Amino acid sequence: MSTPTSFNQSVIEEFRADGGKVGGPFEGADLLLLTTTGAKSGEPHTTPLGYVRHDGLLLIIGSNLGAPRHPAWYHNLLAHPVVSVEIGTEEYEAVAVPAEGERRDRLFAHVADVEPGYGEYQERTSRILPVVALERVPAGEAAREVTNLAEKLLEVHTWLRAQLRHVRAETDAHFAARAAHRGPGAPPPPGLGLQIRQHCLAFCQSLEFHHTTEDAHLFPALAQHHPHLRGALERIRDEHRTVAAVQGELAALLADIGTADPTRFRTELRRMSRQLTAHLDYEEESLIPVLAEIPWPPGPPAA
Question: Is 280 exposed, middle or buried (0-12, 13-18, 19+ CB in 10 A)?
Fold first, then answer.
């Protein structure tokens, strides 16, 4: 008898071998593959899931067939919001954002109307089934081909700047909405909300990966081949540590969004914006001329 793991693996293999089509109980169903990063293991985990389209988004439901606990993939995406989505023959990254409150109820009603089975799963359990929107990560300008490492660095920096602006705009809108609801002179809004948390956590984790990769791989090679850059590289490493400290403050606040001080979060976010903007500007000014001479993607090592 097949275990759930082996059954899922057979579905995954069939999905990938047949352009996103599967037979058996899922034949004709809207199915995607969701790859999350393990909350504890840090390892990738792929799960076949049904989905429903709504207003340009893909919605997935943490039904777990109506079991009393959320599925493992849901806990994974709370820890690591950036996920990989495979649908048909296409694969892309997305930020997974669980809906809350009235929006969650409205989206779930839509899902249950399209796929009544989810309503039956909700009736089996006292927990609220999560509704998760998969927000596709923009791929940038498709027409612009990246041909050297300078262009690749600028592509990453552009994404980071855009994501930080997005989180700041969401935070400002959160404050404005609460102020309008409560009236002038009202206390600051409670909590932060999952939408802000997921987007900020995705930004922070991407920033950490970018800086760690630079420190471990790019900078040692540059220092070896371009000794005149060593002073600039040391300054950039110092700035990485400074930015990481602010990132740590944000991560601590995101750990419990229900009790997080939103005013402090907004202050730290502004500090991140100032320091990261100055850092990225300096890094580009210092490294772009040299990086423009290095092809991307890298070719095979010289014999």
Answer: buried
